[in-house]
Task: inverse folding
């Protein structure tokens, strides 16, 4: 299978794209890939490390605050579509896949004009603007949340879940002693995304002394940006801090509770691994989509919601104590997460792509 794939801007788009690539490689090892991404965002660094051929285009999102900048955006949109058409024509793929981010608009539009089959994947419960703009052009749309179904043409929309979930299940667990943690104590994992995380980190740093003498341990992933400043603080012996963990799902497999943002890929891993969670949605994302992602779990009694505006005093330690010491609540959450899980999401996507291009 020859595949052009595009996704950009955030890990929430890029890692599902990589999960789809990995599944196609697993099923058809001789497949060829070409990734089209932006010239200045995360994908330009992440994708080549996976030995995937990468081509960049200059493209920007529309700026609501500075309308004049949108003239440059429109110009880039036109020129990038022409460039994408040339790239796609030369590569001659069986299918072109978009996995979110404004970079996908010229890529999918170019493929559509060339009458090549197109497929897009939506990770969030609230559809992104790029996918909404492309909905009428593409041949098939995959969604991660059933609640997204009414946002797209129903006749070509399928519920697949997020392909990151299948990748998470396959990962080998990472021993807790890698971080100097006890094998016999429960573990609470704190992970915040980079966007707007400084405010949350400030609250968490001030909260860590409240975990002193608790019979569980804390692994606090600060993010690279804030780590050097945070590590200057003195923390209780049962609190370990690290800037970043490669393949986070490996330690998630040995986690009892996770405190995290509500990005779509993170939630897909939480669901797949059935980890009770306290979700702090980022209020700094378009359409408040992390809050709506979180509510899909909360409404199914599969997670606890804690909004950033409510972070004060000892609320964090109280929320964790209420959950970690309630075995019935923990079991109920795990059962409800199991009901939400789709453990073969990447496989479902692969099978539907195969049908779309006329393969048996």
Result:
């Amino acid at each position: 299978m020859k595949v052009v794939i595009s996704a950009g801007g955030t890990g929430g788009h890029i890692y599902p794209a990589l999960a789809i690539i990995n599944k196609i490689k697993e099923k058809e090892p001789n497949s060829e890939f070409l990734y089209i991404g932006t010239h200045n965002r995360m994908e330009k660094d992440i994708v080549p490390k996976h030995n995937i051929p990468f081509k960049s285009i200059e493209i920007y999102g529309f700026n609501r605050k500075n309308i004049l900048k949108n003239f440059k955006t429109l110009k880039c949109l036109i020129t990038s579509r022409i460039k994408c058409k040339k790239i796609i024509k030369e590569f001659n793929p069986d299918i072109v896949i978009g996995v979110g981010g404004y970079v996908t608009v010229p890529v999918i539009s170019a493929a559509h004009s060339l009458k090549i089959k197109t497929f897009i994947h939506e990770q969030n419960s609230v559809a992104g603007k790029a996918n909404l703009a492309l909905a009428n052009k593409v041949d098939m749309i995959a969604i991660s949340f059933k609640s997204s179904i009414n946002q797209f043409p129903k006749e070509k929309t399928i519920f697949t879940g997020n392909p990151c979930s299948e990748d998470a299940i396959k990962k080998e667990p990472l021993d807790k002693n890698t971080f100097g943690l006890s094998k016999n104590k429960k573990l609470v994992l704190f992970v915040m995304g980079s966007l707007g995380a400084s405010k949350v980190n400030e609250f968490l740093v001030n909260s860590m002394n409240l975990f002193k003498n608790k019979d569980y341990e804390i692994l606090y992933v600060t993010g690279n940006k804030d780590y050097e400043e945070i590590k200057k603080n003195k923390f209780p012996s049962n609190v370990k801090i690290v800037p970043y963990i490669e393949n986070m799902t490996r330690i998630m497999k040995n986690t009892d509770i996770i405190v995290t943002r509500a990005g779509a890929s993170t939630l897909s891993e939480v669901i797949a691994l059935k980890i009770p969670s306290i979700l702090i949605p980022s209020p700094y994302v378009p359409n408040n989509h992390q809050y709506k992602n979180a509510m899909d779990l909360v409404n199914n009694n599969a997670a606890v919601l804690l909004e950033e505006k409510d972070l004060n005093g000892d609320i964090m330690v109280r929320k964790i104590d209420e959950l970690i010491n309630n075995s019935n609540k923990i079991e109920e959450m795990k059962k409800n997460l199991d009901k939400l899980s789709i453990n073969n999401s990447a496989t479902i996507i692969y099978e539907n792509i195969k049908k779309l291009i006329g393969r048996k």
